Amino acid sequence: MSRSTIAAHSLGSVNAEVHSSGADRRFGGTAAEGDITGFVADVRSRSQKVRAALDPRVAERVLLAVVTDAGISDLDPGEARSSQTILLNALIADERLDGAGLDAFMAAARQSADRLLT
Questions:
Q1: Which pLDDT does position 57 carry in this prediction?
Q2: 74 vs 107, which has greater pLDDT?
Q3: What pLDDT, in 10s, does the model give residues 31-65?
Q4: Residue 52's Cα: distance from chain center in Å?
Q5: What distance in Å separates the CA atoms of residue 18 and residue 44, rounded to the nearest whole number?
Q6: Reduced to 3 states, what is the DSSP secondary structure of residue 28?
Q7: Element (DSSP H or E) covering residue 111
Q8: How far is Cα 31 from Cα 12, in angstroms, rounded to an integer?
Q9: Where are the domains of the chain?
Q10: DSSP 29
Q11: For 35-89, what is the HEC assignment?
Q12: How far is Cα 31 from Cα 63, in angstroms, rounded to an integer?
């Protein structure tokens, strides 16, 4: 495996873990499908640009995968990552974390990702 492939895999793992941590904080690992659908609808309503960039079916499946461990291997990887990024931004924005809170969130997510990678 090349260094760039390893780096991309590592970055993808970190991104997925940060997204998972944000979703766990928001939904507590037990969200009903309606909660997730409502959250995605709210995120899409925040701007025309987000509405255009975020496919609700993909976004809902990405979040459900975190909460229920459902598979998403049939989704386009680029579209799934894009949805993760947009949703993560919304999850963090909704937390209204100060600098120290954001640092603590990122440190915890990084520790989880490091455990996955070792």
A1: 96
A2: 74
A3: 778 888 999 999 999 999 999 999 999 999 988 88
A4: 18
A5: 20
A6: coil
A7: helix 99-117
A8: 24
A9: 3-117
A10: T
A11: HHHHHHHHHHCCCHHHHHHCCHHHHHHHHHHHHHCCCCCCCCHHHHHHHHHHHHH
A12: 10
Q: Are 89 and 45 in contact (CB under 8 A)?
A: no
Q: What is the pTM of this model?
A: 0.71
CB 44 within 8 A of CB 51: yes
Backbone φ and ψ of 76, nearest 5°: -60, 125
Structure tokens at 19: 């997204």
- CA-wise closest residue to 50 among 19, 87, 23: 87
For the record, the structure tokens of 115 come out as 């455990």
Q: Give the pair of three-digit tokens for residue 12.
A: 């993808």
Q: Token pair of 53, please?
A: 């960039």
The full length of the chain comes to: 118
